[in-house]
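Possible regression after last week's pipeline update?

I re-ran a chain I had predicted before the update to compare outputs. Posting the input and the new output here so someone can diff against the archived version. Not blocking, just want to make sure nothing changed silently.
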Amino acid sequence: NTDLNKQYEEEQNTRIRQAEELEATQTLLRQEQSVLSTTTTKLSKATEANSYLEDRFELEQNQRMNTDKQLQLKEKNLQESDSTLRNTMQSLGKVKTELVETKQDLAVTSDSLKELQKEKRSFRKLGKNIWRVSKRRVRKILRREKVLAEEEHDLNGKSNVIVNETDNDFQ
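New output (post-update):
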């Protein structure tokens, strides 16, 4: 019986010790679970913050890439505009040169035209004068012919009709 009591006591002590160990292990487990929960929460927050930072970094990279693309496009457009401007300036220079040459040609032509107009007036005056002189000579000749014809008519008794008609045409 003593052996059984002893054995019972030992079993009781073992059970108490195991219960105490179980209680300590459960307390340690609860503490570990609390630490695990806190760590999980902190890890979740850190993961969330990391995800936010990654998204923000990716957005910034995308914005930077878009900005770089826009900048390259604007540089290309600027180069094209610069090239167009240079071509336009060259064309404008050529047009200005042509304009100067045309103005010079116009001045020369205007001078020539004025001289030709003066010559034309001179020729008209000369033509009028020649016509007057020719008319006078013809009249003079016709008058002489008429006088001669009248003298001959007086002598012959005939009239010279052709001379009178010619005289009337030149008046």
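Follow-up from reviewer: compared with the archived run. The two ends are 190 Å apart (CA to CA). Marking as no regression found.
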